[in-house]
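Changelog-adjacent note: as of this version, every example in the card shows the full chain rather than a window. The one below runs 268 residues end to end.
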Amino acid sequence: MPNLTFGKKRERIIMKIITYNVNGLRSVLTNGWSEWLQSVNPDVVCLQETKASPEQLDLSLFENMGYHHYWHSAQKKGYSGVSIFTKKKPTHIETGCGIKDYDNEGRVLRVDFGDVSVMSVYMPSGSSGEERQAYKMQWIADFKKYIDELKKKRKKLIICGDYNICHRAIDIHNPVSNAKSSGFLPEEREWMEQFINDGFIDTFRHFNKDPHHYTWWTYRFGAREKNLGWRIDYTLVSQTLEKKLQRCVILPDAKHSDHCPVLLEIDI
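Full-length structure tokens:
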């Protein structure tokens, strides 16, 4: 009897992954966010700056949509925090990066689906002053060391999140006037360049080289209406996943936060 599966093409399984800094999950839930989530229907949602712990929310709202949910909340109430919602149950969940100062702020969460890992990461901002800028610079140095070690055992990483860094001049509306602004400092941009070059793909730029695409706008000066923004939210993937990439787009019409979501579609 002939082998009927010989030569049959493998079925493609496209995973839709959203990363979104919601700047307060309880706040966006009063602004139509759950209805938006249901309409977009992603497989995985990586949230940053949730500013909430699970006991503060009606989790049945997400469970009724078919999501498993995982949280890494900050010790300080109403601050920072990341979470991941996923319709496929992970094979492993890793909370934090193992460095107490950072884990107290709820900045890293990872879920594994077999050999593919999806991370939600909220990197610090240094805009409030020199002390937090120094904290941010120490964080990015330590985070790279952490990822360098993680890459040795997890070869297929998808690192979603708010990096709080504009990589290049094309990623910010006014690179000249912001040359000395936290988030666009030369040393931050150099870190981003090295981090990507050490084995990652900026999935949005993989598909789109055009200017004027941003993911964050200040609430002041009508910046969003004028599209005076910064691209600081990324979905970076291991170079080993390059051939699996299908699409990556920014969704600026989602206006629940001062950020907007980024959608990645990948064949897993």
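Structural remarks: The chain has one domain: 14-267.
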